[in-house]
Each structure stands twice: as C-alpha cells, then as structure tokens.
Amino acid sequence: NVGDIVILTDVSKRISGTANTTSGSNTVTGVSSNFINDIIEGDIIVLSTGNTETVSNVISATSLITQNTINVTNTGITINLVFNDTKTVTFVNANTILVDTSFTTNSSFVTALVQKFE
Questions:
Q1: What does the CA dihedral 59, 102, 53, 55 come to, rounded to 10 degrees?
Q2: Where are the beta strands (DSSP E) in the chain?
Q3: CA separation for the pair 29, 76 (Å, rounded)
Q4: Which residues contact 34 (CB under 8 A, 6 or more apart)?
Q5: What is the pLDDT of residue 113?
Q6: Could you report the per-residue pLDDT of 67-88, keeping only the tens digit for each?
Q7: What is the pTM assigned to this prediction?
Q8: How far is CA 104 from CA 34, 52, 70, 83, 88, in A?
C-alpha cells in the first residue's frame, strides 16, 4: 500500500563503461567510464568478476581505488553500484511498487529485492 515501508536490499544499477583490474592492486581503471559522476567514496560496487568492493577514493572519470586489493586481472569488466535502504512506497498497482530514491549513476535500470514490514 502507499505509505508502507519497504527494505530495498542489494539494489543495483549498472554504471557506464567498463573497467580493467590487475591482480594485487586496488585500482580499477575505467574504459569509457564516468566514475566522477557515477560513484562516490563509500559506495559499494560489484564487479562482473564476482568481487564486491567498497570504493575508498574516486581519482578521476577513469580511475578509482577500492578498500581491498582485487586479486584478479581482467578487462572489459562491468560495474554495478549497490546499496541497501529503507523507503516509503509512493505508488502501487498490480505489477509495480514505486519508492522515492535517487542514485549517483546515469544508467537506466534498477533491480531490487523488496521486503515489506508487517
């Protein structure tokens, strides 16, 4: 119902471009990326390599530093921005629940696991 509170768990949104990683480094190098506008310090990102990392610093549009060392060398990696939050439902119909939220990324699709408080 409108006004209900929902928990958004592992909400993810793909950010622009791809990235490269080098094993033993905590630097992610973007290709056609826009890290400056898509990601902020403290964001949690999931790489298509399976790594989930916390961003410690965004250096430029094409370079960021993660808190942990990434132990895989790979190119053409996709990055999803992830967050968890609690929101109020603003619209409901048979197939859709809408909540007010915002992202720092410019991608067009969002996925979420939604749990309702009873």
A1: 20
A2: 5-14, 18-21, 25-31, 44-47, 52-60, 63-70, 74-77, 79-92, 97-99, 111-116
A3: 10
A4: 15, 16, 17, 61, 106
A5: 54
A6: 999 999 999 999 998 876 777 7
A7: 0.69
A8: 11, 18, 23, 11, 20
